């Protein structure tokens, strides 16, 4: 597929772009800084500028496309990762503005250009635990996609609004639009520093309900979304199979979430940010369990 990817130069995006390119997709990276990945063209553009997004949707995906004389052509799919990626990076109002208006501009341009597959990066922060003020419990565990999301911070709010925007455009267009509630992204080199302290202090991961997503496994998830047609509007948690800490759920729940009910039994190490839907609907099979990289 010819894929327009926004935010491919970011922490998660660079791994997903590499995965998609290796899987045979033709990817154009749209970002404010170039990625310079072999075989992937870069287009410098700003998602908060609607005109730039409309223009990008018909851009060449590489120099070779100028040779066939077919002119500009729409993409087969859009993957939208570009955003201010977390709280406290920019002022709250700027985080909200960039993420909400940027996502509106990208989806509007894609839909009006006739693109029928759109994947947008949402966030686990929509569940209202990660960036909440004070120590906040979820209403129920495990966290699954039908949960009534209720963030109180500007970043989580922006992602909740983006899901509503995406759902509205899906109703209007009938295109496939899938939102990924992406967990805490771990790059390969981070296993050596992030994970060892969790043996003695799992509470460091309480706000993300102990979950994680390997950046390379996230690439697989996006590729599976590109290949899965006909689902209309969907939300998927994007995380690995198990918690990121060695303690079992019995201990974690009793210690950190003693007042939170379970909607169903969970396995000893099953991720409390559930990825059951991506396994059952998309066929996701994780390749990068953290235990492969941490003694």
UniProtKB/TrEMBL annotation:
Highest taxon above the source species: Bacteria
Occurrences of domain NAD-dependent epimerase/dehydratase (ranges): 3-190
Protein name: NAD(P)-dependent oxidoreductase
Source organism of the structure: Paragemmobacter straminiformis
